[in-house]
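Repro:
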Amino acid sequence: MNDKEYKELQQAAVEGTIPDSKNPIFIFSLTDNELLEKIVEGRIDCRILAARELENRGYSVVGKQKLHKS
């Protein structure tokens, strides 16, 4: 994300055109600094965590198709 995109998302937040829960600039707002540091250092891979979370919610890794759960 470049600076222009970030500023557009900030403006959308101010205007309320994107809910905070869908605005990527808030994705880490509740995350502890220690975890953020580990992400920046590459010690935590957020893509893997996001894929697991989707799987836990019953979605495929691409997030488009609901998996059948018995």
